[in-house]
Amino acid sequence: MVRNLILFFLLVCALLSAQDIDMQAVQAFEDFRWGLRAFHSGNFGDSILSLEKSLSRKPQDLRTRSWLAASLYRAGYEDAALAEWRYVLEKDPGDTAVKNTVDVLAYRRGLGERIEERSQFVVSNLIDAQGSNAYPLSRPSSVCVREDGSVYVVAFASNEVLLLDVNNAVQKVIQGGIRGFDRPYDCLEAEDPQTGERFLFVAEYGGNRVLKLNLEGDRILSIGSKGRAAGELLGPQYLAVDDSGYLYVSDWGNGRVNKYDFSGNFILSIGRGSKLRLSAPTGIAYREGQLFAADSGRKRIVVYDDSGNSLYSFGEGSLTGPEGIAFFDRDHLLVVDGSRLLEYDLRRETWLTLADMGPTAGHLTHLSLSPNGEIYVVDFDENKVYILSEMAALYTSLFVQVDRVNSLSFPDILVEITVEDRKGTPVVGLQEENFIFSEFYREIPSARLLRSPGDDLPLEIALVVEKSPGMREYLPNLAAAVESLHDQISGMDRPGSWRVIGAGQQAVLETGVGASRLESKAAAQSGPWEPGWRLDRGLRLATSQLVSALDPMRRKAVVLLTTGKLNRQSFSEYSLAEVADYLQNNSIPLHVVHFGAEPDRELEYICSETGGAMIAYFAPRSLTTLAADISRRRDSKYLLRLGSVTDSGFGKNYIDFQAEVVFHRKSGRTRSGYFAPLSE
After folding, report:
1. Average pLDDT over residues 408-429
2. Which residue, 217, 141, 250, is CA-closest to 185?
3. What are phi and psi of 581, to 5 degrees?
4. pLDDT digits 0-9 by tens, 10-22
5. Strands, DSSP E only, in 412-491?
6. Between 3.40.50.2300, 2.40.50.140, 2.120.10.30, 3.40.50.1820, what CATH number should domain 121-394 receive?
């Protein structure tokens, strides 16, 4: 009898213990569910608390720990996020998505990007007119990549200009209207700085003129005519523009570069009467008041000021026949020279061979740099356009993150996804075919692209006002700044919205979305004006307001009105890095409008890290284009609508979600997940 009672007691204890373990698992899963809901709502603080609570019940759950890392990252706590991801990777070395995230973030946070030399470029894709399904363009002579990643290809022999998307699909064929083109050689899309209108210029080698077209391909103006007199042309080839609205044309037959305004009026000729004369000018490029012209006859690059005075030359003894040139960045010039793609470092005065096409290439004529970091190079003889990518970029591939899954209309879901290269540069121009989504490794058959980085979207601004005694001295200017910004945002084709946040000792939301100009101005000018004002709290509140806003069809930014001078309390609660990371990791730029002469470097750092700008209020035209500049900034976000292929279990099942982006020979993937809304 006693023995049976002991056995019964042990059995009851075991059952109670098992029940206790099950209840811990149930509660941990419920905390995990709330953590994910908070994450996809942009409430990262609540997400962190719920996920940490879940981990306290199930410390070995790697899935929860990965989500905690993601929440910490989006909240700006990168050190803590990396520690969690590295723990997951230590326990599960085969998790490639986590490994890629750790590698990219470690690269961005280290010195690798700053000290890394340019690696060799290799062909990552090809536009081949001889391909089985290719458009039969003939003799491509030049290429012009647009800001959205699409590209113009000029076909010299077939007298047309093609517009292709990033996947090389033909979007439009421009043939010059009823009269057609006469041996087009180069094209260039440019914006008139006076009107903001965009035009397409096409140099006609056979017609000895430059045509000005609208973006639909309709003729507006003909510039120049055949001849040797001032303003006339003989075999025009390449085009360039400057920031003031002037057009430059390399005039091959006359051995010069002609300069016109956008209305077609001749200004001057460059390269004939100067000390450094041009023999056979080909490619041209403009940068900061200087015109760079390739002289294939004398095998050099000659530099002039924008009045036509020769400054210096380089490349003698290094070049064999330079043609197309373009700036990679401010200090590096790309040059097509024979079968080689070269880079010239203007500061070090050194040459680097980025690619040698050798016997595979025919006649390389022109090149253009893509916003995605690729270089398009034209092969006139082989009817090809080579797309070159840096070899190191192919190995490290793309950085892909799912920012948010909105499942309120389940089974239809909205997915916000960020696509960048390893340096943090947005990858633009992607189409639906570049995205592959799956749930539990079961592919979702179709996706509809709703938003891309280059889309024209209304603005959503968080205006932060420094509430210091020093700022109080600028009250009239502060009022004028608020009025100017309000008028700019409300007067845009797609009117935006904003809110005003006061950065005092505490950050305060002064006005919500939809406040009038008078309400906004009153909020900006109201006190208290406190010596211990807190920048970190103000920027954190502004960012959280924008992140938690669920409308993805808006372009978001923080604008700070400040004296430019910080205090000891500026980053006492949140560090400088945490503030910058919170903005950067949510693709929100900081634009600083400073009323003092020399702003502190911490402000410049945040602007630089987030892609914003420093603006001196008392400088000429200081605020006049700020809203337009914010609107033109390209982020790295895409929005797609999908149809789930998974049973949600009435909202109780966790749905494992994978996203992959494939672009030319580069790819990137990530893992996410979500819950559908609870239902009966």
Report:
1. 94
2. 141
3. -65, -35
4. 444 544 454 455 6
5. 412-420, 435-439, 442-443, 447-451, 459-466
6. 2.120.10.30
Mean pLDDT of 331-349: 96
How many other β-carbons are positioned within 10 Å of the β-carbon of residue 32? 25
In CATH, the number for domain 2-115 is 1.25.40.10
Q: Return the residue matching tokens 């809901």.
A: 37
Domain 459-632 has CATH 3.40.50.410: yes
Let me know if 491 is exposed, middle or buried by CB neighbors in 10 A (0-12, 13-18, 19+).
Answer: exposed
Rounded Cα distance, 350 and 347, in Å:
8
Nearest-CA neighbor of 197 among 210, 209, 211, 215? 215
C-alpha to C-alpha distance for 632 and 190, rounded to whole angstroms? 15
Domains of the chain, residue spans: 2-115, 121-394, 397-454+636-674, 459-632
pLDDT reported for residue 254: 96
CA–CA dist 122, 394 (Å, integer): 9
CATH of domain 397-454+636-674: 2.60.40.10
Give strand ranges (E) for 525-610: 555-562, 590-594
Written as one letter, the residue type at 267 is I
Strands 447-451 and 637-643, how do they pair?
antiparallel
Is residue 8 very low, low, confident or very high in pLDDT (cuts 50, 70, 90)? Answer: very low
Q: Which two tokens stand for residue 48?
A: 């962190």
- Report the interhelical angle of 576-584 vs 78-91 (nearest 10°): 70
Q: In this prediction, what percent of the chain has a pLDDT beyond 70?
A: 95
DSSP state string for 364-390:
EEEEEE-TTS-EEEEETTTTEEEEEEE
Cβ neighbours for 8, distance < 8 A, ≥ 6 positions apart: none
Output the average pLDDT for the chain. 92
Cα-Cα-Cα-Cα torsion 54, 60, 63, 64, nearest 10 degrees, comes to 20
Give the separation between CA 641 and CA 651, rounded to whole angstroms.
19
